[in-house]
Amino acid sequence: MSMRIVIHEHGGPDVLKVEDHDPGRPGPGEALVRHSAVGLNFIDTYFRTGLYPPAGGLPFTPGNEAAGVVEAVGEGVTEVKAGQRVAYATSLGAYAAERVMPAKALLPLPDAIADEQAAAMMLKGMTAQYLLRQTYRVKEGDTILIHAAAGGVGLIATQWAKHLGATVIGTAGSKEKAEIARAHGADYVILYKEEDFAERVKEITNGKKLPVVYDGVGKATFMGSLDCLRPRGLMVSYGNASGAVDAFNLGILAQKGSLFVTRPTLFGYTSTREELVACASDLFDVVAKGAVKIEINQRFKLAEAADAHRAIESRATTGSTVLLP
């Protein structure tokens, strides 16, 4: 028997229950993966609370990313082989010691990237990739705003944007997190609880404002983010850490300068095997060369997933967090 976390009802961290299970054997197109590390992400709390309903309903095992070793493969599998180190960011089910899953979602790991590092970066790192390289292609000379710059996605995106030659303005909720963001390359950090970040952006840019804002915070920052954009600028709303964005009048976009708004997801940018491999390869490259460093600042046992959720929801975490089976 193996161990996994199961949610039988939506609610607070206490609904995360430890259970024994038999992962079974892989069928055609599937692989059995033994996890060495599982990534923790804020999106996990959305599924736990029911903000994002799980596709298969209740009960379910949360978690979208992990790393480990392929124990066995089913008929017709060509993407990976038994004994290979792999990582993934895919559908729910990662909060487990072992799982059977589609082999097409698995990505072989290069030797330069450790298992814990991979588990901590797949979802956040590939999110940073599609944000910076696809949703809006950041180029040398751009000035951009990254909200929650000391968070999981924020730290990766800040480093990557600096590697691309951008000037990075970040926001943070405390002086301690501001220092972390600066240490990872942010040129300016705005304490959004103490300052009007939109006004500060205008000051920093001498009134020119920005071509793009990356906002994973949601409700608390959305309208202010629109005020940071220059005419025809792009608002990228990719998360809801402060709650879902309220409905708003589209005419506001016209009033503020013919703005664009998008609500992208990783899975919308990696829906084919080719897209997935290209996205991950780009991430592996910048991490392997040291342009982006993945810092694991918190570790919890998988059985302590509830404590990990309390920590991330209270904004007590920085960088990446992993759960260890």
Automatic annotation (TrEMBL):
<dbReference type="Pfam" id="PF00107">
    <property type="entry name" value="ADH_zinc_N"/>
</dbReference>
<dbReference type="GO" id="GO:0005829">
    <property type="term" value="C:cytosol"/>
</dbReference>
<keyword id="KW-0521">NADP</keyword>
<dbReference type="InterPro" id="IPR036291">
    <property type="entry name" value="NAD(P)-bd_dom_sf"/>
</dbReference>
<dbReference type="InterPro" id="IPR020843">
    <property type="entry name" value="ER"/>
</dbReference>
<dbReference type="InterPro" id="IPR002364">
    <property type="entry name" value="Quin_OxRdtase/zeta-crystal_CS"/>
</dbReference>
<dbReference type="InterPro" id="IPR011032">
    <property type="entry name" value="GroES-like_sf"/>
</dbReference>
<dbReference type="GO" id="GO:0008270">
    <property type="term" value="F:zinc ion binding"/>
</dbReference>
<dbReference type="GO" id="GO:0070402">
    <property type="term" value="F:NADPH binding"/>
</dbReference>
<protein>
    <submittedName>
        <fullName>Quinone oxidoreductase</fullName>
    </submittedName>
</protein>
<dbReference type="InterPro" id="IPR013154">
    <property type="entry name" value="ADH-like_N"/>
</dbReference>
<feature type="domain" description="Enoyl reductase (ER)">
    <location>
        <begin position="11"/>
        <end position="323"/>
    </location>
</feature>
<dbReference type="Pfam" id="PF08240">
    <property type="entry name" value="ADH_N"/>
</dbReference>
<keyword id="KW-0560">Oxidoreductase</keyword>
<dbReference type="InterPro" id="IPR047618">
    <property type="entry name" value="QOR-like"/>
</dbReference>
<dbReference type="GO" id="GO:0003960">
    <property type="term" value="F:quinone reductase (NADPH) activity"/>
</dbReference>
<dbReference type="InterPro" id="IPR013149">
    <property type="entry name" value="ADH-like_C"/>
</dbReference>
<dbReference type="GO" id="GO:0035925">
    <property type="term" value="F:mRNA 3'-UTR AU-rich region binding"/>
</dbReference>
